[in-house]
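S1.2 Input.
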Amino acid sequence: MAKTTTKTKKGKKEAAVDKEAARQTQRQAVLSLVETMHREKNISKDIIFGGIEAAIQLAIERASLEEVDVLVHIDRTSGEIIAQRGDQMIEPEYLGRIAAQAARQVMTQKIREAESEGVFNEFQARKGDLVTATVQRVDNGTAIVTVTKDQKSSGTVEAILPRSEQIPGETHQVNDRIKAVVMDVRKQGHRVKIVLSRCHPDFVRALFEQEIPEIQDRTIEIKQVAREAGYRSKVAVSSIDMKVDCVGACVGVRGSRIKNVIDEINGERIDIVRWNDSMQVMIPNALQPAEISDVQLYPRLGRAIVLVAEDQLSLAIGRRGQNVRLASKLVGWDIDIMTMDELSRDLDKAERWFSRIPGIQPEHIEALITEGFFSYTDLTFLEAEQLAEIIGIDPEVADDMIIFAEEEAERIEREGEPEEEIVAEEAAAGEQPAEGLLSEEAVAIVNGEVPAEPVAATPAGGFESLFQPEGEVQAAQEAQPPQEEQPPQSGESNGGEADRRPNTE
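S1.3 Output.
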């Protein structure tokens, strides 16, 4: 009997030891799992512990089938699992196989959500940064790539390079390594969508930062980048060290530095512009290589009128307006390129248009033109209080003027400019048409008076006399013998084609 009791006690003691050893193994497994996931997935340990606790809690609730609050806590140091239902402590062995499987699923979901959150936060902070990606496949022009995570965590994440964000004309093959910038990061359910770009201006900025050490150490600063991907870019730079030439440092010896950037963007043309805080200097720099005669700034509208010589007009505008468009993006102002004659015509047109506004005075027109308002459309961008402040009138009157300008702008857009406006512009430009080709009303508008008699037809002496000096025309008329009136031949009338044909001898 005594031997039996001794064996029983020994068996219980060994069972207790085995049970404690199993729990210790469980604790070590929990801590090892948390440490591994924290290192590989870059997920906070608290989030992992919370996911395991939620999984065990759900498993106990499903196994008990009772609506009793269950509390689960895992010791962060020892890894011991403490589960309590009401006042009763629950042993981990109580869970069973089905509950353990449910706990594993919940834990996996929680950890996956935490991993997605970590990826989202990481790449949200890396927006605009340059990354190197490997093409996995190409689907309808869109490249599916993998991007390496930062140094803190190993592994890769999937991203996309849409066709619209690829440089025009380039193609990608599987396993190609490409450079791009992180343009957008957004959540789609539990997944994170990372969009890359090779067309964004930040791509050129990032390439400059990679290739030019002076930009990396902040000696040279990139102020602004304007780009039309695949065609042309303008980069404005400045230096905080007067001894460092910002433009020369970016170009490099014999173009060595800029060549690497140009090769990466498939030969796209790059203009490096010296930045200046004064728009009077910056705008001509941005419009290089065109030579600028004058720059007129109108800050209220954010508009700059740039005057150039006739032979510089096409160069300043650029092919399909590319040069002026990029310069406008670079400086942040609307730039209008014109010659002095075009400016004079615009000023005359503005004066004529504004004079039709009810209640406006000449000094009001002068104030509007001085501020850069040249058309009815320009006035529609103003509030009544702003217009009242510019020309010094009551806001109610200013509101009526703006309403009139809106109606006129819509009418001109719908119907075009009136005929008298076109005639007046031609007269102002010195391009008045020849007599006989205008109506009486048009002649009256150009001359400023109503003609007293009908306009004469082609002067005597024939069509060529219109292009001869007055003295030569008179001499030709005196030397020409008088023609005798011939009776009309049969089959012809006095108004026939032969009588109407001018004498060209």
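S1.4 Remarks. The two ends are 157 Å apart (CA to CA).
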